[in-house]
């Protein structure tokens, strides 16, 4: 596999994103997924590494938040993966993970991902935590005209994909509705450790934010 071709594909579809789902997010997810996998399974095969990197770099290229024509992008993915000599079962695995790994897709039905996909999913969710997660949350909220905070708008318990996409939201509520819960969704031992550390950091941030909001 030529990693430059995988990266170029990610650049093509993610470079102009301003919501926190840009190329650099994809690169961090790919690298973090590799790091997590190596912590739990130090003897990684070349093919496992290739699949981790593909899924990591590409995981947002067909996401509904930023992709208006996922069918077209999926066809391009298949063509490139065939050119890079991936087997059909590997291509199917990549596409299954990319289509079923998001938080919102798993609200109503939990999708069991293959092991490689679990590490990519954990890496993506860890990217929503800690200092990077805070920055991305406010970038996403601003890009969608969300208020930073409004005490009159209460956090909701999210139970469906439709509710997740359409309910009245603020960026601070997003921490209570989703981000503080991600630690409990980790699939992997390595992922759980980092998620816990980053979640503690976010709690401290929100505690300080609310103190300052109240003028303390």
Descriptive terms for the model:
single chain, 216 residues, mainly alpha, 62% helix
Distance between the termini: 55 Å
The total beta strand count reads: 0
Number of helices: 10
Rg on CA atoms, Å: 18 Å
| Outline | globular
Largest sheet data: none
Which class do the helix and strand fractions yield?
mainly alpha
Low-confidence stretches: none
Mean pLDDT: 94
| Beta-strand content bin | under 5%
Helix residue percentage? 55-70%
Plain-language structure description:
By secondary structure, the chain is mostly helical. Helix content is 62%, strand content 0%. The chain has ten helices and no strands. It has helices at 3-14, 23-40, 46-58, 70-83, 88-100, 115-126, 130-143, 161-166, 171-177, 189-213. Helix 3 (46-58) crosses helix 6. The longest helix has 25 residues, at 189-213. The radius of gyration is 18 Å and the shape is globular.
Q: What is the secondary structure topology, with strand pairs?
A:
Blueprint: H1 3-14, H2 23-40, H3 46-58, H4 70-83, H5 88-100, H6 115-126, H7 130-143, H8 161-166, H9 171-177, H10 189-213
Helix pairs in contact: 1-3, 2-3, 2-6, 3-5, 3-6, 6-10, 7-10
């Amino acid at each position: 596999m030529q990693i430059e071709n995988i990266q170029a594909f990610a650049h093509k579809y993610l470079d102009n994103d301003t919501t926190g789902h840009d190329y650099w997010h994809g690169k961090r997810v790919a690298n973090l997924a590799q790091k997590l996998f190596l912590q739990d399974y130090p003897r990684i095969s070349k093919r496992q590494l290739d699949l981790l990197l593909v899924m990591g770099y590409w995981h947002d290229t067909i996401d509904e938040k930023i992709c208006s024509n996922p069918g077209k992008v999926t066809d391009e993915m298949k063509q490139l993966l065939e050119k890079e000599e991936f087997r059909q079962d590997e291509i199917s695995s990549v596409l299954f993970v990319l289509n079923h790994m998001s938080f919102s897709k798993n609200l109503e039905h939990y999708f069991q991902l293959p092991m490689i996909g679990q590490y990519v999913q954990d890496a993506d969710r860890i990217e929503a935590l800690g200092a990077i997660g805070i920055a991305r949350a406010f970038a996403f909220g601003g890009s969608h005209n969300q208020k930073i905070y409004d005490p009159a708008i209460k956090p909701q318990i999210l139970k469906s994909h439709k509710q997740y996409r359409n309910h009245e939201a603020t960026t601070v509520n997003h921490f209570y509705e989703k981000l503080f819960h991600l630690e409990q969704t980790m699939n992997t031992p390595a992922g759980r450790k980092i998620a816990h550390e980053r979640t503690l950091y976010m709690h401290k941030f929100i505690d300080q934010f609310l103190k300052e909001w109240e003028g303390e």
